[in-house]
């Protein structure tokens, strides 16, 4: 069996963090290993110590705006795809977030949509190479 995909979940709400982690673990059927971070700084610390295949990013962290968090994660791990998961997103914000480097955006609570985006991205990463252009094309 190949190594599990490494996913970092940065989410300040404990219940939401556990829900996303459980979704990834159960749907991943042993192929996804989740690291949880309760705030942006903990997430950035984790990104500084090891490589992740994906970062699931809460867009309503108390200490920063969504775009500041996206920028900080992008600076710390520029080759790691980021999948923001807000509770609501407008079409304009979705486009802005994609332009700033996010793979896609999935609305929190849409568990099937969230898993579909995660699975698509992680499957692309399995093939190696630069997945960001392909990931963006899939997310369009």
Describe the protein's topology:
Layout: E1 5-10, H1 14-28, E2 32-37, H2 40-49, E3 54-57, H3 66-76, E4 82-84, H4 91-99, H5 111-126, H6 131-139
Parallel strand pairs: 1-2, 1-3, 3-4
Uncertain parts: 129-140
Distance between the termini: 31 Å
Instruction: Report mean pLDDT, rounded to a whole number.
Output: 77
SS field, number of helical segments: 6
Q: Overall 3D geometry?
A: globular
CATH second-level architecture: 3-Layer(aba) Sandwich
CATH homologous superfamily grouping: Response regulator
Biggest pleated sheet: 4 strands, parallel
* Counted beta strands: 4
Number of domains: 1
Helical amount:
40-55%
Query: What class, by secondary structure content?
Result: alpha/beta
């Amino acid at each position: 069996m190949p190594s599990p995909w490494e996913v970092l979940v940065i989410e300040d709400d404990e219940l939401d963090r556990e829900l996303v982690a459980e979704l990834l673990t159960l749907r991943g059927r042993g192929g996804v290993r989740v690291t949880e971070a309760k705030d942006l700084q903990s997430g950035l610390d984790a990104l500084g110590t090891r490589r992740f295949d994906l970062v699931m990013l809460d867009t309503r962290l108390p200490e920063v705006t969504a775009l500041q968090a996206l920028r900080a994660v992008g600076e710390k791990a520029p080759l790691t795809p980021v999948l923001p998961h807000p509770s609501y997103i407008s079409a304009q914000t979705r486009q802005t977030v994609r332009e700033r480097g996010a793979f896609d955006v999935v609305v929190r609570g849409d568990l099937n949509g969230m898993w579909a985006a995660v699975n698509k991205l992680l499957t692309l990463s399995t093939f190696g190479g630069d997945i960001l252009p392909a990931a963006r094309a899939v997310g369009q």
